[in-house]
Amino acid sequence: MSLLRISTIRADLQKAFADRVVAIANELVISPHWLMQVMWSESRLNAAAVNPKTNATGLIQFMPDTARGLKTSVEALKVMNPVDQLEYVRRYFLPYKGKMKSYYDVYSVVFFPALIGKPDTWVLQTSKLSAAVIAKQNPVVNINKDAQITVKEFKQYVFNSVLAAHRDIVFGAIKAAAPAAGGIAAAVVLFFCSLAINSLI
């Protein structure tokens, strides 16, 4: 399987990285392309990437508190082999196994897990973070510029963030993942992925 953006990874690590991504995706019952795309969107697949404002670090931009919760630190993640860092990506996503039915859900886990399964009209907010604060912190996602971000806006942002040439691969598996968990759904996901991959050959 040729994964999206795999050429971004250092040549001598590409096979090990790809094999690990596929293994993690199989465990999570999601498309490996979804993992690759979310890591590309967050860090350009740079395991040492650091956000200077928040100190978020690594492939999926682990926040310092998140890193500590995974029994590591952003300092350790920054110097970690990217293949080894994938273990922490796995640990982060594992609690959401069975809940990720589309790439939107996978991105939600990284961006704002509470929005998984919410209707398009739902506004992103928590008991500690108001809708206005979240919108101010994420102006590119607040497409309507109305001081609140809805699930619909989030989905539009995510869709726009995927290269047009890759959208069939990333979003083509959504229908496959939606009906039910288990063998049939997994088989259909693989079918969609195979079609997408073959179209690139």
Automatic annotation (TrEMBL):
State the CDD domains in the record: LT-like
Q: Where is the Transglycosylase SLT domain?
A: 29-77
Query: What highest taxon heads this organism's lineage?
Result: Bacteria
Q: Which UniProt keywords apply?
A: Membrane, Transmembrane, Transmembrane helix
What Gene3D superfamilies does the annotation carry?
A: 1.10.530.10
Q: Which regions span the lipid bilayer?
A: 176-197
Q: What is this protein called?
A: Transglycosylase-like protein with SLT domain
From which source organism is this entry? Lacibacter cauensis
